[in-house]
Amino acid sequence: MSDLLSPRARRLRPPSWRDARLLIGLVLVLGSVALGSRVLAAADSTVPVYAAATALPAGHPVDPASLRVVRVRIGTGAGPYLSAAVAPPSGAVLLRSVGDGELVPASAVGPAGGLDRRPVPVPVSAPVPVGLRPAAVVDVWSSARDQASASAYKPPVRLAHNVEIFAVTSDASALGASRGASVQVLLGEDEVRSVLDALANGARLAIVPVLAGGAG
């Protein structure tokens, strides 16, 4: 009697391809895989470009020591920037200044012959003011000697306006004390002539930083 009253156990059958739940699950899995692939592809759609490791003036050599590699998305217009997929061009220099951390535009890189300015050293007293550093914008002023008095100087005149500093060097004595410094400024042909003439005639030159927003 117990055998007659006990329900007969159902046999488990493997799911069929016609099972709607199996088809829905398969679609969800395939959709997740496709979505994940697109997300990974989008996350990797970046290219390496060069950025300035510090503020660099015009005329500075384009070398790995002064650059760092950053990755940018293709959609942000990476094309105009200097690609880091290859080494920087040999012998190339910056044709304009590039700020600290700024991406290096490909148009700002070229041969040294493409520069229309030349670095000219101007002596300054030590210590060098904080504002005098490479890529900073300055004015160059000159006070010529007064021929009527050997110890007198004429009122200063401005020889160069809104020019960039190329380099700053200090002249240290044997005891380590700074005796003076030289600031190289990038000057056009007429400005070079004026500054060299002033230096040759014993004029006093001064380099004055241009405050942000004061250029123009």
What does this structure look like?
It is a single chain. This protein is an alpha+beta fold and 216 residues long. It is built from 3 helices and 9 strands. Helices cover 19% and strands 31% of the residues. The radius of gyration is 34 Å and the shape is rod-shaped. It has 2 domains: 46-113, Type Iii Antifreeze Protein Isoform Hplc 12, CATH 3.90.1210; 116-209, no CATH class. The strands form 3 sheets. The protein has a 5-stranded antiparallel β-sheet with strand order 5-8-7-6-9. A two-stranded antiparallel sheet has the order 1-2.
Please describe the structure with a list of short key phrases separated by commas or semicolons.
Type Iii Antifreeze Protein Isoform Hplc 12, single chain, 3 helices, 9 strands, rod-shaped, 216 residues, two-stranded antiparallel ribbon, five-stranded antiparallel beta sheet, 2 domains, alpha+beta
Question: Quick gist of this model?
Answer:
With 216 residues, the protein is an alpha+beta fold.
* Proportion of beta-strand residues: 25-35%
Q: In order across it, which strands form the biggest sheet?
A: 5-8-7-6-9
Helix percent reads 10-25%
Going by helix content, strand content and strand pairing, the class is alpha+beta
**Total helix count?**
3
Question: H/E element string?
Answer: HHEEEEEEEEHE
Query: Would you identify the regions where 5 or more consecutive residues have pLDDT less than 50?
Result: 173-178
Q: How many domain modules?
A: 2
Rg for CA atoms: 34 Å
**Annotation, overall tally of beta strands:** 9
**Largest β-sheet summary:** 5 strands, antiparallel
Give the overall average pLDDT: 81
Distance between the termini: 109 Å
Shape: rod-shaped
